């Protein structure tokens, strides 16, 4: 009798889940993409063939994360000027051409994230990544100055110190051995973002290892939920999903970020910062560094409308974005240098032409590493840390020859955009000379957007570029990097960031 009752409950919940999605779908049935001239939509933009009522849903739901990544890559090759697909009658525009990308990223009508980010908000909450409107404008205005280029000289010594520290670790533990870059690079980037943006120095690398493990587990869970529409319903997710496991990892991740905030609050209390009206951060640091967390804490002390939760969500956002995306860029830069020894040798020659002692380099010296900068940029073209971004529409939006209706979704596939053969001939080839000044003059400004672009571009891109340069210069001066993983074995799967299916392994051989 009890089993029958439980069975009925399960059936009822499944019906509720189905209705949760089919009722909005029926509501949207008459909301369709139109053309400016009133003609057929398929004459204005390609539509991926699907099944009646279900659209492309039945095709996509069969694919695992690796197959899904490949599916979108194949569609971009098939439809290089962007294309439409449907989940039931829900239109999704997939942008792979720079003209559309420019219109979308520059328009305030498309500044809001799509519903795909809804599960992710449990992690970063309503921070700068996911917020919109007045809150987003206010928070961005407050935080942006803390990543201004003029502030970078305050962080430069941290970049040097952390890179030298990691070089010593590689030298003592990993030299002449096969090592997964995921075991070492994120340690450097996490420590760096903690000390610069948060003003808190981690005592050991192991302090951050548990955080990174928990974040990785959490990413897998959140991506799985994002790709399963049934789990958008909280009741269904709680009963049939892995909510308890997710909550466990969320608690651990949020505890770590809260500990960072508490350490900084304690520094402030010990130095009595709140009593000084001019935000004199030199009271907290002997070397004055405008840490992002400092700015938020002082704003709270001075009565601005920033609660403890607001600070938490920005710390969670920048902790994740600040270490994960830079780690990916550094990892693939090292991998590309390993796979292309001729390019690595040119970078090494550039380094020793500037100095034999990298510890003496100043921040201005790093502007001399022109070829290294091209290498980093070409790496981020082929392997953008964030391979796609998604926006939601809350009113009709004209784009080219079509009019997208309210409630549509727009996905910008940065990974495919960067492989546009019109602007990048032989796009799969690694060629740093693409970013020599003479080769960039006639390139569309939105065909290369590793830090996004437009209204919601990354505020930390100059910070990240300098951080990567400092690390690579210090590492390449001491080691030759050799490939262990084969380039042809590197595949990707759908994730919050660019996620390879195999570890990227190299050998660091002492010079």
Short description:
The chain is of the alpha+beta class. It has helices at 2-27, 41-44, 57-60, 65-78, 98-106, 121-124, 133-143, 152-174, 185-196, 206-226, 234-240, 243-271, 292-301, 308-339, 341-354, 370-382, 414-417, 461-478, and strands spanning 34-35, 83-87, 90-95, 178-180, 388-392, 397-399, 402-404, 409-413, 479-483, 492-493, 499-500, 505-510. It folds into two domains: 1-30; 31-272 and 287-510, Cytochrome p450, CATH 1.10.630.
Structure description:
The strands form four sheets. Strands 2-3-8-5 form a four-stranded mixed beta sheet. It has a three-stranded antiparallel beta sheet with strand order 1-7-6. It has a three-stranded antiparallel beta sheet with strand order 4-12-9. It is of the alpha+beta class and 511 residues long. Helix content is 50%, strand content 9%. Residues 275-288 have low confidence and may be disordered. The protein folds into two domains: 1-30; 31-272 and 287-510, Cytochrome p450 (Orthogonal Bundle), CATH 1.10.630. The radius of gyration is 24 Å and the shape is globular. Strand 6 and strand 7 form a beta hairpin. The protein has 18 helices and twelve strands. Its cofactor is heme. The chain crosses the membrane at residues 6-29. Keywords: Heme, Iron, Membrane, Metal-binding, Monooxygenase, Oxidoreductase, Transmembrane, Transmembrane helix. May be involved in the metabolism of insect hormones and in the breakdown of synthetic insecticides.
